[in-house]
Design brief:
With about 325 residues, the protein is of the alpha/beta class. The chain has two domains: about 230 residues; about 80 residues, no CATH class. The protein is about 50% helix and about 15% strand. The strands form two sheets. Strands 3-2-4-1-5-6 form a six-stranded parallel sheet, with helices on both faces. The protein has a three-stranded parallel sheet with strand order 7-8-9. This is DUF1638 domain-containing protein. InterPro entries: DUF1638 (IPR012437).
């Protein structure tokens, strides 16, 4: 079965939860167990996703068991096929079934075999998705972010047919990733816009690509604007504590250069909590509030591209 691994930014868990919940053709969904996975798991379950939670070191063992199960099912079908031949029917008379019973048995076996073959083929084609969410605090240091992602690429490549890096460019942290892993045994995939360019950051993902992001900024007519997705709005206080007073969360800097906070709605996080978090941010930094609809297009297209390519690659081998 094809295995697509996803290394995801915690900031993009809404987008990832959305695309996974919309995919009804998965063999298995596995989420790696860590501190930041629990909220993501709750979102998946709230959208009726069936999943398994494993620590990283247990995943190869589970995948081996799944592949053995598919192999054993195929072996049974081969044995049934061999039993059709005359040579295998030359067995002592006293253990044969009556002719009528035997014919009925054969018909039933044929039907079972057809169903087993269909199910087996379907299972072979359905991918296993393995998701690894990394913590928000990595953004405070681009070198640390790159190092962590690279470590996880190396670990997950051992059992993956492809890896989707569910991150934007994040201060050019990942601009050379494709080149540096060109000899990796599995393919790397990225969040890309319709021009094939890796998106700048999580806001670019939420707005549907780099061009859309640039257009929205230009539409502000010089007004400094901060963009908040539901995850940004719920996480900014935590990130502020970990930021060491960088300009992203410096009160005087933000109040001097930014006048408006743009609330970007999405398909996952709805309700009063998002509204309250945005209002809290706006009041803290003396900003007015504007709203716009976000997009799942970048996340959906990039995920489906990675998944389809991995499946084609494995089934053609």
């Amino acid at each position: 079965m094809p295995v697509l691994s996803i290394i995801a930014c915690e900031m993009l868990e809404d987008e990832l939860a959305y695309v996974l919940s919309e995919d009804h053709d998965l063999g298995q969904l596995i989420v790696l167990e860590n501190r930041q996975s629990f909220r993501f798991v709750r979102k998946l379950k709230s959208r009726n996703c069936q999943l398994r939670l494993f620590p990283l070191e247990k995943v190869p063992i589970f995948l081996k068991g799944v592949n053995n199960s598919v192999y054993n099912s195929a072996s049974v079908n081969i044995l049934k096929l061999l039993l059709k031949f005359q040579f295998f029917e030359k067995i002592p008379h006293h253990i044969r079934k009556k002719s009528k019973e035997k014919n009925n048995e054969k018909n039933n076996e044929k039907n079972d075999e057809k169903n087993d073959e269909k199910n087996n083929e379907k299972n072979k084609e359905k991918p296993i998705i393995v998701v690894n969410t990394l913590k928000l605090g990595l953004h405070a240091d681009c070198e640390l972010l790159r190092s962590e992602i690279y470590q996880h690429i190396k670990k997950m490549a051992a059992f993956s047919d492809g890896i989707l890096i569910f991150y934007g460019n994040c201060g050019h942290s990942l601009r050379n990733t494709e080149e540096e892993f060109k000899d990796l045994p599995c393919s790397l995939y990225f969040l890309k816009d319709e021009k094939g360019e890796i998106v700048d950051d999580c806001i670019s993902v939420a707005l549907g690509g780099n061009d859309n992001y640039a257009e929205v900024m230009q539409g502000g007519n010089g007004t400094g604007m901060i963009y908040l997705t539901p995850m940004w709005a719920s996480s900014w206080k935590q990130m502020r504590k970990e930021s060491n007073n960088t300009s992203d969360f410096n009160d005087s800097f933000l109040k001097r250069h930014y006048k408006k906070v743009v609330k970007i709605n999405n398909n996952i996080s709805t309700g009063s909590e998002f509204d309250e978090n945005v209002l809290d941010y706006a009041q803290t930094f003396d900003m007015s509030i504007a709203e716009m609809e976000g997009s799942m297009e970048i996340a959906s297209r990039s995920y489906l591209n990675a998944k389809n390519n991995v499946c084609k690659r494995v089934l053609s081998d």
